[in-house]
Amino acid sequence: MWSHRSGRLRAHGYNLQEQRDRWREREAALRKARREQHLVSKRLLRDTDLEEARDEFQNKPLEELEVLHLLRMSQRGTEKEKEKALISLRHSLQHPETQQTFIWLEGSIRTLIGLLTSNWASLQMEAARCLHELSHADQPNVAEACLPSTSYLLTYLSGHSADFIELCLYTLGNLAVESEAVRRQLLPQGIIPALALCIQSPHAAVLEALGYTLSQLLQANEAPKEIIPSVLDSAILPNMLRLLHPTPELGASVAVEFAWCLHYIICSQVNNPLLISRGALSTLGLLLMDLARAASGSVDTGLDLLACPVLRCFGNLLAEEGAADPGVRADFGDERIIVAMFILMEFFIQHQPSLVPECLWVLNNLTVKDPGLCTAMLSLDLVAPLLQLLPISRVVRILVLTILCNIAEKGPFYCQRLWPGPLLPHLLDILTLSDSEVVGQSLELLQLLFVHQPEAAQDFLQHSGLQALEKHKEEVDLQERIQALQEVALGGSSLVPNALALP
């Protein structure tokens, strides 16, 4: 769910409603693509310290009788013998064939639950590990077979063993991502209150596992109606915002997990004004400035793992009504956030170029309604560095031109600062391209400049600008804008000087 600045200034007679519809369709497509790119995956937690227990069962799928033997052995003999049988069973459950054999055996899950609720901590842990192996299965029927265990796994989230809680969380997360039936059962069983309690844990491993489990719930199709409202009403939200800032004790992994959780909540658009009122926008802005400081003194490419979801969260919240309120932007609404974006872009060009458009999208949403930040870009001479990004990609070209339109539409003072300068040769180069969308965005920028800075039209004519437009005169989408530019450049302007913001 990105937000995009819409077309601003149009020639007389240009169909504004058609332009609104076109931008709305594009906006919807972008949001849909963003949501569909959220990949769900399962995580596997294995304890390598117990590999000495591997035996003849580990390297091959087990037959039904062999599985039955291990289940019987797990209920007989000493605690050590039971544990050894469970370890062998766990190893065998790494095979999909054994998983299917196991779930079709009558009483198999019930046996694991019995051991999970026993009085021996070692047997509880091994039973939980067996359930964890099952939760990692590719077949949905395996996850649904584990349904009877979910209430017990939830109960143990309030326990004292961080390792056991972590294991239960990852198991619940794996089960939740696989089956709607599991999620329907977890909600009335109280998974949201249980997670709200866990999020106060001081253990980084528990918090990272909790972030994973929560993210699986938040990505469910039913999340906007059935899950996210409960999350927003719980103690999870303030703690999530607190955990976005990495600390030496917790590291960056916890922050990454909760940044993605926040991203999924924002994309749902269930109650973004609530997020803003709770300080989410301020928290994200300050965090981005911290990340920029880290980027300016580091070559650590792992920075992108946190920056990606944070940039998306920040950019999307900036598009919300109320985000332009000076009180909301008090902590970050000055030139520092602009400088931070350019520092991050300089870093990502070297380490993760795919994040440059994310930074530009934030710049777009910062400048679209804020003349002060547009002034900051001009005062800091950041137009030239912005233009240097044009060769990176088509998406970058569109976003750079859009940001320049945001600045130009603010009026004559801003256009005077944009022109003259390096802008004209870049625009003439863009007009040689065959990409109608990129060319259309450059035409929009030229319209704004011609209205507010008449000298720009004269310079355009002197540099064979009209000849450059001839290449596109047959393109239906551009014909009216080209005609308008020709009229104003030759002194017959029919453009209106009022900027029009389309939703």
Sheet with the most strands, sense and barrel status: none
Helix content: 55-70%
Please tell me what the overall shape is. elongated
N to C succession of SSEs: HHHHHHHHHHHHHHHHHHHHHHHHHHHHHH
Q: Note the quaternary state here.
A: single chain
> What's the total count of β strands?
0
Distance between the termini: 14 Å
Instruction: Report Rg.
Output: 29 Å
Q: What is the arithmetic mean of pLDDT? A: 84
- Specify the number of helices: 30
Describe this structure in words.
This protein has 503 residues and is mainly α. 66% of the residues lie in helices and 0% in strands. The protein has helices at 16-36, 64-73, 79-92, 96-104, 108-116, 121-135, 140-145, 150-155, 162-178, 180-189, 191-198, 204-218, 223-226, 228-232, 236-242, 251-268, 272-277, 280-296, 303-318, 335-351, 356-367, 371-379, 383-387, 394-408, 412-418, 423-430, 436-452, 454-462, 465-470, 476-489.
Outline the secondary-structure elements.
Layout: H1 16-36, H2 64-73, H3 79-92, H4 96-104, H5 108-116, H6 121-135, H7 140-145, H8 150-155, H9 162-178, H10 180-189, H11 191-198, H12 204-218, H13 223-226, H14 228-232, H15 236-242, H16 251-268, H17 272-277, H18 280-296, H19 303-318, H20 335-351, H21 356-367, H22 371-379, H23 383-387, H24 394-408, H25 412-418, H26 423-430, H27 436-452, H28 454-462, H29 465-470, H30 476-489
Helix pairs in contact: 2-3, 3-6, 5-6, 6-9, 9-10, 9-12, 12-16, 16-19, 18-19, 18-20, 19-21, 20-21, 21-24, 24-27, 25-27, 27-28, 27-30
